[in-house]
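Colleagues,

Please find the record for the three-part complex below.
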Amino acid sequence: MASHVLLIEDEPNIAEAIRFLLGREGLTVSSMSDGTGAAEAVRAQKPDLVILDLMLPGCSGLDVVEAIRANPETGGTPVLMLTAKGAGRDREAAERAGVDRFMTKPFSNADMLAQVRELVGR
Amino acid sequence: MRRVRGPLFLKRGSYRRRRLRDAARMLPFAALLLFMMPVLWAQDGTVREGTAGDGLYLFAVWFGVLAVAAAMAPWLSSEIGAEDEAGAEGRGSGEG
Amino acid sequence: MPFNLLVLACLAYVAFLFLVAFLAERRAAMGRIGWLRSPMIYTLSLSIYCTAWTFYGAVGYAARSGLEFVTIYLGPTLVFVGWWILLRKLVRIGRQQRVTSIADLISSRFGKSNLLGVLVTVLAVVAATPYIALQLQSVTLSFGVFASGTPEGWALPNRDATAIWVAGGLALFTILFGTRNLDAKEQHHGVVLAIAVEAVVKLVALLAVGIFVVWGLGGGPAEVFERIEASPVGLWEVQPGRWVGLIFVSAAAVICLPRMFQVMVVEDGDEHHLARASWAFPFYLLLMSLFIVPIAVIGLERMPEGANPDMFVLTLPLNEGQGGLAMLVFLGGFSSATSMVIVESIALATMVSNHIVMPLWLKLRPKAAISGDVRRIVLLSRRLAIVAVLTLGYAYYRMSGGSAALAAIGLIAFVGVAQVLPVLVGGLYWRGATKAGAMAGLVTGLSVWAFTLYLPSFGPDAVMARSVFTEGLLGIGWLRPEALFGVEGMDPLLHALFWSLALNTLAFCLFSLLTFPGPVERMQGAAFVNVFDEGGGPQGWARGRAEPEALLIMAQRILGEENALALFAAEARAQGKEGYLPDATPDFVAGLERRLAGSVGAATAHAMISQIVGRATVSVEDLMAVANETAQIMEYSAELEAQREELTRTARQLREANEKLTQLSVQKDAFLSQISHELRTPMTSIRAFSEILTEGDLPPELVANYGRIIHEEAIRLTRLLDDLLDLSVLENGSVQLNIGVANVQQMLDRALAAAGHTRPERSFLIIRDLPAENIFVRTDADRLVQVFINLISNARKYCDAAHPELKITVRQRAGKLSVDFIDNGSGIPKQQQAIIFEKFARLTDQTRAGGPGWGWPSAAR
């Protein structure tokens, strides 16, 4: 069974690129463009991995992670966070919130795929 | 209490006037020195026939001192109540 | 020379003096003082230093001791030539403190202590009594000289009777002109003019004798010079101790003698007159002593063996048959004696009445001090004191029986009054001098002087038993009056001078150091020592009249000018005399005291007010000096306060600047973070798709699509960089504007088209008024479009309304065009509106996506 990835990214072009790359890897990808309702979507879809942008319209990616972790049903879901803000502060805040991996934009496709593979356990 | 400090250096005119006051203070001491000369002359202890000579000397010195005093008096008189009189005197009097 | 003619001439001379004094008094009473107070009169009045002692006695002194007599004049010469040092201060203080006598000066300096006043008065009376006796004696002697030579067989008049007549006459003159009125200032124009006339008479008389002797009898200066060398007087051996000691004691005496103080400070205390007298008075002394030695030498040559050299001035012309000259000399000697006695008795009477009689009287009848007219009592007590002083002098004369050597008596008196010197000089220059010190010094000096010089002068067994002289007081060997502490073989005068002044000064300094002065003492000490600090000196107001003024000045110095003036003006209005100073009513004074207490404390305010209002013991000047000090201290503390405020202000400014810097730093971080985000976002797409394309194996439509995305994102990146450059260009102020004519509508079209890329997924309702926009303006079209783009993109990004809309209105007003972009979002909170034109600010929200905050800064410019 193909692993399922939930992508939450407000930049359509970036979302497009990630969808293409993961799809080529054989993963199923569903995507959202803002953070509101993201936690609910995670609970409903039970994805194998959540890829999340830090800065989202509506709410912060950190809030989304916290919401995911706060729910026992979704608490174990791996989260890969992407951000265009490369400051160390943000990375620390993300790790505190319970993010599994943290990647700074722009990223190399190979690196991103390697992280995803690791997180989905393949 | 604070003391108002005067300027460190004075204009030439003020400087001259200060020295004039100094001279006025020194004059009596200079005069005393001159009036003491007969004592120094008598140091050998011998009786001298000195009334005429010493008298002439004393009167000459006396007259000279008065001439100097008379020359300074008008200048000093105009110094009375001068604006920097207070400061200079005030500091000076602390020593007494 | 008929004796009755002499008596007639004498009476005529006295009548002339009466007339002179009377006319001067009348002139002064009419207010035409003019030359009555001039440097010349001042100098001549100082000549009372030359009494009958010096007029007659100097020649005798010269005959016995050669040039030593001149020391009596050299001392005063030094003091006057050095007037700038001491006399000037003395005169200034005398004028400022309205000093009435030397006793008053000392008592005033040491906290208005009446006990000190009494002490100095007693000292002065004791020292002056033999001196007055000496004058009576000289007049009697000179009468006797004439009487003995009278050919008409006039009986030698009774000496004692002569002395009584002289004393009585002097008392009458002194009472008439010395106690005519009781002025605020002790000035006696009549007396001063009379003694000035007498000064001229005695100088002319002595010079006339001198000229007669040198050119008439001696054969010219050269010959007289030789004769001096040949005579016994020419063998002069200077005694260093006496030479120095006598110069010193006469210098001290000219400062401390009550009569000298009277004419020098009390009668006409004017520093400018003093400047003239500084050389003119010593010159007078020089002239007085010029012919002393020649007269002595010629007298010894010509007069019979055993003739009294003290009378040579008179007997020499008489012997040579110069009756007229002798008469002039007699009048000169008479003048010397009378002027001295008159002034001395006025000075002593003032002291006695002010420091002994009046305090006693007020103590016995305390009510009179408040209600009665004190002036009458004062005048009466002065008159009685004059009579008493002269009676004392006469009694001394009778008791001593006419001592042969006049000079000795004069010197005894000199040493006596010199006891005041340490206290006087200490009081003038040393703030630490205290009342107890002054008391100790004076008592010590007075006792030692009396024991070693004054009492022994009466001779053994007269006052002190002979045994005291030989065996010492109470049989103690080192307490012999003329060999104190075993110092033997010293000249008795020097011995007394040394011990009295040394012990006096020692006691004065020691007690001053060990005791603590009272408040009034300290005030007075400061006022005396720092007399020149106050500047201008007294303003010449009478105390009673100017009381409200004094209160005002004091209040001004404590409360500040405006407050004090307001207080006084309010009181004046209340009293119904607006525009004038208010009367010092009890209510007002009590109110003022309360006001002052607020500034200087209740105790001080009470003391100050009671001193001014009660006219008790401190003069207004002292209080003003204190007030001035207080004002200075307050000014100083106000300055400190100001400095403190300044510091607080600076600290606040620093804090604000720091806050602003911190804020800016936060903004900068946010800005950089934002920039980073803005740049990284397109870069991410570009990188991802370029890597995908690099790998190949893609369907052509995907390649085209991804290539388009890369292209779009590249354009977006370029625009961001352009924006950034715009900002820095504007920031440096070196922007290059391409001014041209552009249509607002077209510019808005361009801007809307460009801004449409921002969040294209959101539908935005744009409300425009196209006809209003159709305006041409002179501007840099590209930049203005950029501003519009920024504003529109911001609206697109941040408008939080459910159905966002943007209204663009264009209005023309007073030659200016305004373009408003109004969205229906929640807007910017009021407190943050101030910072929207700060270049980095993007308000608080970091999480919302969108452009950097540089839209508004370029719009504001």
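The CA atoms of residues 37 and 74 of chain B lie 29 Å apart.

Comments are welcome before we finalize the supplementary table.
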